[in-house]
Amino acid sequence: MQKTEHRKINLSVDIAGLKLKNPVMTASGTFGYGEEYSEFVDLNRLGAIVVKGLSVEPKKGNPTPRVVETPAGMLNAIGLQNIGVKAFIRDKLPFLSQFNTPLIVNFFGDSIDEYVKAAEELSSAKGVHALEMNISCPNKQAGWIIFGTDPKIMEQVVTAARKTTKLPLIVKLSPNVTDIGLMAKVAENSGADAISLINTLTGMVVDIKKRRPVLGNNTGGLSGPAVRPVAVRMVQEVYKAVSIPVIGMGGIMNASDALEFLIAGARAVAIGTANFVNPTATIEIIEGIEMYLEEEGFYDINDIIGSLITNTNALSKLT
Ligand SMILES: Cc1cc2nc3c(=O)[nH]c(=O)nc-3n(C[C@H](O)[C@H](O)[C@H](O)COP(=O)(O)O)c2cc1C
Q1: Is 210 a catalytic residue?
Q2: Of all residues in the chain, what percent are helix, strand and coil, respectively (each to 5)?
Q3: Active site residue: 103, 137, 154, 252, which one?
Q4: CA of 312 relative to ligand 1 center, distance in Å
Q5: If you classify domain 13-303 with CATH, what class do you get?
Q6: Beta partners for 174?
Q7: pTM tops 0.90
Q8: Would you write out the chain's pLDDT as a tens digit for each of its 319 residues?
Q9: For residues 95 and 176, what is the distance between their CA atoms, to the nearest angstrom?
Q10: Extents of the domains making up the chain
Q11: CB-based contact 25:54 (threshold 8 Å)
Q12: Which residues are 134's β-sheet partners?
């Protein structure tokens, strides 16, 4: 019998100098601080671990109910509950540092000052490899406008964080805007090393008997398969608008979903809501991507990133 050649497939990607062994990471807020999933997932196999968003001071979060299931997704209003930067560094970082996997810490604040303080403290901690800025939260000094929905406010907060840290800075965009490409460009010009998207889409579910919103916070963020086509479209627009790497997420449940994002231009993908349905989703997605590459005759993941062939006869930019 003839021996078939078995060439190794390269799955590794580079995000702003950060070497990932594969392009699959966790999405902030859906994987706790890593330890919670370590019973199900070998954390050494992940491309990167992204932890729950941290603020300088701990936060209790929103009143309950905080989550509600929706068709093909979920709406959450956790309210950014977290243990705070100091407790994270003291209690969670030692565990996460054991693994041979880059650690990306998601952070936020309700003022520019708070972003700067969080970035400062996290940057001085050993074992943090990159920072992801969640700008989908309100700015108390600007009438509670969401940082990531106003180009001027976004520019100010990203510029301030950029000055504070030497770590790779990933800016996570809010999809609740009209022109996502413009927002990505503003983030790039303000010093972002990479862009991640999408965060959740704002939504509401009404209890018709009570005639009240189901969530304690009234509105929440929609995630899961329902948002995926919107996310893929936005990733493609951002990929075309900027020259820094793009990390795609939004409703990725399996390898085929992840591949849509990679082909549309994402250099890495993050798995969120899927972790709640299937705790081993990340590993299955890594294996599925490798299998696809093998079947399609690719030896390097980088060859499919941004390989989308768009229809040149499309008449409208939008539909
Ligand atoms: C319960 C929950 C908590 C989340 N917490 C955060 C967070 O702390 N910081 C952040 O940037 N994004 C947070 N997200 C957004 C996710 O990281 C991700 O961007 C979004 O859910 C879309 O991906 P998915 O459809 O795969 O879940 C959260 C999402 C969910 C469902």
Answers
A1: no
A2: 35, 20, 45
A3: 137
A4: 34
A5: alpha beta
A6: none
A7: yes
A8: 444 566 799 999 999 999 999 999 999 999 999 999 999 999 999 999 999 999 999 999 999 999 999 999 999 999 999 999 999 999 999 999 999 999 999 999 999 999 999 999 999 999 999 999 999 999 898 889 999 999 999 999 999 999 999 999 999 999 999 999 999 999 999 999 999 999 999 999 999 999 999 999 999 999 999 999 999 999 999 999 999 999 999 999 999 999 999 999 999 999 999 999 999 999 999 999 999 999 999 999 999 999 999 998 886 665 5
A9: 35
A10: 13-303
A11: no
A12: 172
Residue 134 and residue 317: Cα distance in Å, rounded? 29
Measured from the Cα of 223, ligand 1's closest atom is 25
Cα gap 296→124, rounded to integer Å = 44
Please work out whether the CB of residue 72 comes within 6 Å of at least one atom of ligand 1. Answer: no
Backbone angles phi, psi at 89, to 5 degrees: -65, -40
Angle between helices 180-189 and 151-164 (to 10 degrees): 30
